[in-house]
Amino acid sequence: MLRTSNRWLWHGIFVVIVALSIFGIYQASKQINYNWQWERVTPFLFDTSPLEVIAAGDGSVVINDDGSLVVNFDYDDQPQVVTQYDELFVADSDIVFEGDVLAQSENWSVGPLIVGLWVTLKISVISLFFAVIIGLVAGLMRISNNPVTKNLSFLYVEIIRGTPLLVQIFIVYFFLGTIFDLERFTAGVVALSVFTGAYIAEIIRSGIQSIPPGQMEAARSLGMNYPKAMAYVILPQAFKRTLPPMAGQLITLIKDSSLVSVISITDLTKAGREVISGSFATFEVWFVVAGLYLLLTISLSWVVQRIEKRLASSD
């Protein structure tokens, strides 16, 4: 009972700390005399503004019995026919001019921030797939007894980890992209995959080397060759041990994907900059962008935690 009360006490302290932090941020925001306008960000997430039907020229309106709207133009052009609308702004025999609003219909579409979120998710997932493959191959090369493969892997890891990702993105896009005619999206995927693959290679190497050598010897004594022993005995154990650092690296990949905006890929970060230039809601947009990135990383963390619990129960 005492333990339970202490536990609730510490939870209460945590809530108080979070509340005080939020209150402090709120008070700090008041010091900069900024007019918060969160409603200006909503259309850039989900646009629910009605879709207007505009007259394509000067003419007269005819409303048919079936409700369809026809604009007969003055210069005998092909008439404009409108069959679907929710609200009508003209009547039969009205004279309209080019640009007049004839009707409007309800509309729902995703805004540029959601489109940018989808691009970020897509480039992250594709880069993750190739980064794991590159990292697995490079990690196995790192523990190889062949000096050529071992040195090549070491050189790759040291060069990639020793240079900034932003510089690598520029090199891939402007140099390799020019040679191989790579699109922006492809260049971004290549840069992120190669960069993340170097870190995954070290994680896999350390995971494999943490397995006692007797595991490999036992597998070989059962008649398994080296690839089978590695695939069925060593790697599954190494995967469990490397899952937490692997998850951290994958979360870093999602955040690092924001750098591809420098080569004009309209990901979440670039979409945020474009929205700011049109809405001037600087703080609101960046808070929303940060929240969307947080949504992606928390979702990935939750998936990894579920995997960890399932693997722990299978031991």
From TrEMBL:
UniProt superkingdom: Bacteria
Any Pfam family the entry gives: BPD_transp_1
Entry keyword Membrane: yes
Biological process annotations from GO: amino acid transport
CDD domains in the cross-refs: TM_PBP2
Function, in words: Part of the binding-protein-dependent transport system for glutamine; probably responsible for the translocation of the substrate across the membrane.
Family listed: Belongs to the binding-protein-dependent transport system permease family. HisMQ subfamily.
PANTHER family in alphabetical order: GLUTAMINE TRANSPORT SYSTEM PERMEASE PROTEIN GLNP (PTHR30614:SF20), MEMBRANE COMPONENT OF AMINO ACID ABC TRANSPORTER (PTHR30614)
Official protein name in the record: Putative glutamine transport system permease protein GlnP
Organism: Photobacterium frigidiphilum
